[in-house]
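hi! just following up on the protien thing from before. the input was this:
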Amino acid sequence: MGNTIHPMHSSFLNADLVECILRSLPDFQCLVSTILTSKTIYNVFQQHPRSVVRSVAYNLVGPALPQALRFVRCQNAQLYSKPVAELLGEDDIQENPVFSSEDIRSLVAISTSVQELESLFSWRMKDRRFKTSQLSLVESTRFQKAMYRLSLFSAVYGHNAYESAIDPDSDQDEIESVLQEAFSLRKGFFGSLSTPELRDIQKIETFLRRIIARAEGFDFTMTVSASYSPESTFVLYCAPHSVIDVYKGGLECIPEWDLDVAEENFFFDDFIVGPLTSVLGDRKEPPHLPVNQKQPIIDEIVGEHDRCLQCQSDTAKGLDLWGPSNWSYLWDKQSLHSITQLLKGRLSANLADNVRFLTVLRETPAEELVGGLFDYKTPAYLTWKKADWLCSQCLEKFMRDHLHIWYLGQKVKRGHLIPDNCWYGYNCRTQTHRLAHAQKLNHWCEPTKGDAF
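and the predicted 3d structure came back as:
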């Protein structure tokens, strides 16, 4: 006798069970799909819509739901340039527990960005082995609360606030007055937070700027400037959570902006750091925590004391090491020209191949390129393995010694005929100013004549 599916009767027990299941669903898409499968399930939902929606919202966002809801409600209400006391509080979820459809749509959008940023933060700041978040519940809650607070700060006192506060015909005195008022409002917001909460925001702000710097062209071989670029400040001024879009899509994701508008430059210059460090100063706190003190958000860094397997240097450990699990972060497409500088000799100026080399770089993900270099190891590197964790200096050295060999291999794989080698190889000067010579001979090889021979 086959299995028979009986319709669920709306008994008290069954209704209770259905409500429990609905409240355990992980997101609103699952909720909608579930209540549409049966009229009985839909009727149970209609009996408890507020509690079910609130539970699903908590499942989606987690313990930082009060901060997330505060952000979306203040943003949707356009509470721009308001003193912190006039904003909705983090207890608004208790005072107004009913979620509107606008609340839900906004929560879904912002929580997706914040969760993706959390995974990126975990990868770069806690455990370099995994791209998905490895943060503990406590660490994750700290990160998400700080992220939602920073997004709220930018929504209320950032780009939108500037647009509503400055008249295009304002004179310099009026602009100065608005700037002072803006600084006071921003400082008041940070003043409402505890010092540990401010330190968490500082940590996230630094992390977000490093992501933007990567998109600006900085790669693993370069030291990120201590000064902030206007672009990075402007992204945080508009929407810190949009940094995940910059990570995935590059600087083209930055909203259009006009550096000639001096008034707004003043508004986003020192937008976060100025008022935040001013509050810390008032509390007799240092502007930044000393490196020998416990740092914000993260309680434990996995492999914190690991060393480069080749040089064993003390200067680069833990999160500063590179291996197969984090090669994909090494550079952005904006950094490709800096990668060409790793080529030996004068190859970066080779008239026949410089454009083609960039094209191959653009078509090859960083992790595929670095992994591919190990297929062309020279005798000096026979003991080096793909799984080795390397510092930036050792990785740069390895790339410099193999990038030209790898590219020659890519040309062969793509069906290009390789001409005879030039005697002067990658050091040849003529390849940089005579196209015919650059095309006639192969220069992606070791010199057999000249200074380097």
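Confidence is low (pLDDT under 50) at residues 1-6, 259-263.
Residues 341 and 348 are 6 Å apart (CA to CA).
cheers
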